[in-house]
């Protein structure tokens, strides 16, 4: 984790990535990449020279078996606000459009939902 935080600090210094009073939203899937990123940013937040807010956002595509309980618990424990965007992406992609290769459309729709939520926060 020290190595990851060091890379975050260096990127912030080199590219002026985080300014005072920024609000950083992380697209949170609950996978190892987004868990590591949100945790590292939370640790970095403690000693960063620039004060910033941090939030996790998950786009729920509407699959019946999607369980976000572990994500909710983890983010509550590290005190990061969590927003879940409920969508009907799965119904559109699979039931209505019956896509044979659904990944591209699903990805675009998830990004669109995430961007719309981020705009609300500005």
Question: How would you characterize this protein structure?
Answer:
With 122 residues, the protein is an alpha/beta fold. The chain has a domain at 2-86: HUPs (Rossmann fold, 3-Layer(aba) Sandwich). Helix content is 54%, strand content 16%. The protein is built from five helices and three strands; from the N terminus they run αβαβαβαα. The chain has helices spanning 2-15, 32-47, 69-77, 89-96, 103-121; strands at residues 22-27, 52-60, 82-86. A three-stranded parallel sheet has the order 1-2-3. α1 packs across α2 (32-47). The chain is elongated, with a radius of gyration of 16 Å. The relative contact order is 0.15. The model has no long low-confidence stretch (mean pLDDT 92).
Mind telling me the CATH class of the domain at 2-86? Alpha Beta
CATH overall fold name of the domain at 2-86: Rossmann fold
Q: Unreliable segments (pLDDT under 50, ≥5 consecutive)? A: none
The CATH H-level homologous superfamily of the domain at 2-86: HUPs
- CATH hierarchy: architecture of the domain at 2-86: 3-Layer(aba) Sandwich
Secondary-structure-based class equals alpha/beta
What average pLDDT do the residues reach?
Answer: 92
What is the global morphology? elongated
Number of strands: 3
How do the strands of the widest beta sheet line up side by side?
Answer: 1-2-3
Estimate percent helicity. Answer: 40-55%
* Portion in beta strands: 15-25%
What does the main sheet amount to? 3 strands, parallel
Round the Cα radius of gyration to an integer and report it: 16 Å
Instruction: Give the H and E element order.
Output: HEHEHEHH
């Amino acid at each position: 984790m020290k190595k990851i935080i060091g890379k975050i600090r260096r990127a912030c210094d080199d590219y002026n990535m985080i300014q005072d009073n920024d609000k950083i939203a992380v697209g949170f899937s609950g996978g190892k990449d987004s868990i590591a990123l949100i945790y590292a940013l939370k640790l970095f937040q403690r000693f960063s020279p620039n004060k910033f807010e941090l939030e996790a956002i998950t786009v729920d595509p509407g699959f019946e078996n999607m369980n976000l309980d572990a994500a909710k618990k983890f983010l509550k424990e590290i005190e990061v606000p969590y927003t879940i965007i409920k969508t009907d992406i799965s119904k559109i992609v699979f039931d209505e459009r019956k896509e044979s290769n659904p990944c591209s459309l699903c990805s675009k729709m998830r990004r669109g939902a995430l961007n719309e939520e981020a705009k609300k926060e500005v």
